[in-house]
């Protein structure tokens, strides 16, 4: 049986009002919490076969930190169409 994990991006920063929503970075808490999620995934014995992410900076940064801390050694696949996407876009990418 296959397992699908869906993760929301870690806490992002709102301090720079000149950044577009797509370009918002992780804040201090997000940078702390994302690695913890990767460590939890690893401690549960779940090694992802594949990681996909939106191209949004906060989502991609979260994916990188989770991947690094879960011992995932593959390439994170980025999909612009997942940014602000409806559920159907996720199904399309997954299939």
Describe the protein.
The chain is mainly alpha-helical and 95 residues long. Helix content is 40%, strand content 8%. It is built from 3 helices and 2 strands. It has helices at 28-43, 57-70, 87-94; strands at residues 51-54, 76-79. It has a two-stranded parallel sheet. Helix 2 links the parallel strand 1 (51-54) and strand 2 (76-79). Helix 1 (28-43) packs parallel to helix 2 (57-70). The protein starts with 27 loop residues before the first helix and ends with a helix. The mean pLDDT is 95.
Describe the SSE topology:
Blueprint: H1 28-43, E1 51-54, H2 57-70, E2 76-79, H3 87-94
Parallel strand pairs: 1-2
Characteristic terms for this protein:
95 residues; mainly alpha; two-stranded parallel sheet; 3 helices
> How far apart lie the N and C ends?
16 Å
**Run of helices and strands:** HEHEH
> Could you tell me the mean pLDDT?
95
> Sheet bearing the most strands, described?
2 strands, parallel
Task: Determine the structural class based on helices, strands and strand pairing.
Answer: mainly alpha
Total DSSP helices:
3
Radius of gyration: 13 Å
Taking pLDDT < 50 over at least 5 consecutive residues as the criterion, the unreliable ranges are none
Sum up the overall morphology in one term.
flat
């Amino acid at each position: 049986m296959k397992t699908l994990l869906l993760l929301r991006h870690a806490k992002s920063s709102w301090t720079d009002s000149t950044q577009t929503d797509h370009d918002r970075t992780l804040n201090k808490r997000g940078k702390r919490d994302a690695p913890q999620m990767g460590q939890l995934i690893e401690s549960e014995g779940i090694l992802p076969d594949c990681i996909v992410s939106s191209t949004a900076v906060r989502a991609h940064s979260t994916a990188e930190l989770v991947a690094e801390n879960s011992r995932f050694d593959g390439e994170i696949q980025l999909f612009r169409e997942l940014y602000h996407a409806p559920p159907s876009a996720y199904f399309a990418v997954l299939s």
